[in-house]
Amino acid sequence: MSDAAATRTARSRWLLLAPALAVLIFAASGPLLIVLVYSFLTPGDYGGILWEFSTDAWFNVVFEQDFFTEEVTLADAHLSIFWRSIKLSLLTAFLTFVFGFPTAYFIATRPKDKRDIWMLLIIIPFWTNLLIRTFAIMELIRAEGAINSVLLALGIIDEPIQMLFTEFAILLGMAYVYLPLMVLPIYASLERFDFTLVEAGYDLYASRWRVLRKVIFPLAKPGVIAGSILVFVPSLGAYVTPRVLGGGKQLMLGNLIELQFGAGRNWPLGAALSLTLLAIVMVALILYVRAAGNEEVRHG
Amino acid sequence: MIEIANVSKIFTGRGAPFTALDDVSVTIRENEFFTLLGPSGCGKTTLLRVIAGFIDPTHGAVKLEGQDLVKLPPYRRPVNTVFQSYALFPHMTVAQNIAFGLEMLDKPSAEIKATVDQMLELVRMTPMADRKTSEISGGQQQRVALARALAPRPKVLLLDEPLSALDFKLRKDMQLELKRLQSETGITFVFVTHDQEEALTMSDRIAVMNAGDIRQIGGPRDIYDHPAERFVADFIGDTNFLEVELLATEGETARIRLPSGVETEVRAPRDGVAPGPVTLAVRPEHASLSGGDGAALPGTLANVVYFGTDTHFHVDLDGGARFVLRQQNQPGTAQGWSVGDAVTVTLAPGVGQVLRD
Ligand SMILES: Nc1ncnc2c1ncn2[C@@H]1O[C@H](COP(=O)(O)OP(=O)(O)OP(=O)(O)O)[C@@H](O)[C@H]1O
Ligand SMILES: [Mg+2]
After folding, report:
1. For residue A222, which residues of chain B lie inside 8 Å, CB to CB?
2. Least enclosed by CB within 10 Å: which of B44, B105, B206, B313?
3. What interface predicted TM-score (ipTM) does this complex get?
4. Which terms are listed as keywords in the entry (chain B) (predicted)?
């Protein structure tokens, strides 16, 4: 390609990007900037902010200062919420993968005319209101709920298992809610998958398990990566599910942030926590994509 | 080596049951280039997939060196396939594709490397070992597919129309290449094609299939010169069919009476046919217009078509049948007949094959 032509393509590329960039800068970065500014201000007594510069909010994200002794300690309450959020989000991504992969595989191997119906069944819950879906899970796992009733009736347990308001409940709820986000991208990559490759694998002495590992999984990997990002990111900031199923006892980051803007009346801390959440997401994504990319290079 | 005994395959899908293989029996010999030839939908792929293990036969047995294959899953059969679509693994390089089978057999890595190098050499792909399979041409992909299937040294290599996606020139090259590979490796090839010319030029033996059944098995010459029945004669090469009367058979020769009343001797069908009305098959290049010894069939020249290497003469025989002759062109000399001339088609003794049905 000549230099002039190269410049021309470069220029038209920027032109094509311009609308997207404009939206990103004004619609996405604008609010983000406001949040950033707020995180360096002083909380107002009844919520809102005072226009006085302060780094207290950022300090308070990870540290606590005793009111009387002025002793500085790590903010255990916050840290345990960070940890729970990360842990539950990772587990959610893992759980949705474990259930989502076989589901996507199953659908992709159905005859063409049947696949849409199966996909529809996966997507329908997604069209239902999030709260309703979350309450449905609650109905299943509460003390007098369906699962406990059945187990009691069968005599497998003597008293109801406490499932509601535990981390397990949050995990179950999030996995249920976000499952389609895992199934869809995996299905998309498997749908284009050429199943004679599976036969070629069998033909070349690979057992079922090895065909899955060496042929199907590597080719479905872009879908798995996309799916786990799509599940992990909203899980980390989830608000409704931990609120309902964690019952205010098992807070996650989303709840903590909401608390600062509500009852806590500490908007700057809420803003700082929001940005921390964003930072965790970014770091996690960079690490993940890099690890997945390396894998790609090693296995070709 | 491979014994296929009374194999049937009945597909029971949503529609009516469909018999794709109808009581097929054939024995494929060691080191043989064996071709399954037949029109589209006759069951070639189905038979190949039964041998590979992707399809369970409804009835019958498949044995390899006496060992029953039917119970073994595909990954336990010492048989490899070159797929029609090649089915190369897109996430692996050329070399990784070739190594795959050996890795799955848990061979030591030194051995794998040596074999892969040797295979790359064999199919002349060494310079492209580290390319992705999407970065090589169709013909090169075909060679990689071949190398991948040969690398584990299978006892039998199954090839399902591996050349059908290639253009004419490449196809001719690959035909020679396949032949070379087969004789160099000494592996039994079972080759599927619906191209009769390809079958004739490459095979040691050919099985001609139609509608789920093997109609005739034999060497290329045998099949071409002595088709057993109308379908085989028609499917392979061009043939003239004449309605004649069989008078008597004696060993390989049969006495027949032509419609013109002339009696002559032709080849008898192998499995014996009762005297009476039969069909005689005559290849266009086996008959002659220039007289000579043999039975004469008078007629009128209806058309002359020039083909470069040869010329086709369409003769309307007295009595109504159309007969096509083919004669090789000689340099400088024009053929001496023109349309409308009264001509005589001559069948030399022994030319013509009486068909089974
Ligand atoms: N899974 C199946 N279910 C039902 N019928 C099938 C199935 N597979 C093949 N058939 C039918 O069996 C017959 C033989 O198919 P096969 O693929 O063996 O043909 P082929 O000789 O390889 O043809 P081609 O030259 O077109 O590849 C066809 O009529 C086909 O429609
Ligand atoms: Mg076929």
Report:
1. none
2. B105
3. 0.82
4. ATP-binding, Nucleotide-binding
